[in-house]
Amino acid sequence: MTTPRLLIIGPQGSGKGTQGVRIAAALGIPAISTGDIFRANIAAGTELGRRVQAITAAGDLVPDALTNEIVRDRLSQDDAAGGFLLDGYPRNLGQVGDLDTFLDGRGEPLTAVVELSVPRAESIQRLSLRAAEQGRADDNEESIAKRLAIYESETAPILDVYRAHGIVVTVDGVGTLDEVFERIVAALAERGIVVAV
Ligand code: AMP
Q1: pTM reported for the whole predicted model
Q2: What is the mean pLDDT of the chain?
């Protein structure tokens, strides 16, 4: 079986956070979400949290150097030795370069990139719903628009890089949680990654 070193990628509101956590739990690997790391630090009032609070609330990207360092540290922890699932990182081509250099240096490149495909209108609708339910600081109209624009201009091009490596699987993200989960499981199986369900 292929070691699951995964990236899940999709627009905000595609459900990638929820699906990522579920896939990672089924595979027994950590789900590493840079957004979650930043939110936890903001909630705990750490120095990192203070540095990124205004940036994340506005929907802008945290500087690459800082983000890259946080992910390298996290991937160096013992629980990521047998695989991991990244969510929300890498988010632009600079971060792709840094991540791939780091992983190639260990001889352990990503083995699959799951693209969750969801139409823009549906993403916006789901984000508005989440804003009402969870009250996330960055789920306001202005920030949502900015984050989706950044996704389209900076994050989507990442897929071309990984497509060239032949490791992208595209999954239809419209459907119930269970339906989408099953599609991801089937797509990973095609790449030799077996999720016990
Ligand atoms: P997310 O939960 O992935 O939507 O991330 C929430 C916010 O955290 C983003 O809008 C950014 O401000 C910041 N963030 C998360 N991941 C990254 C990343 N890879 N690079 C830069 N900023 C990030």
Answers
A1: 0.94
A2: 94
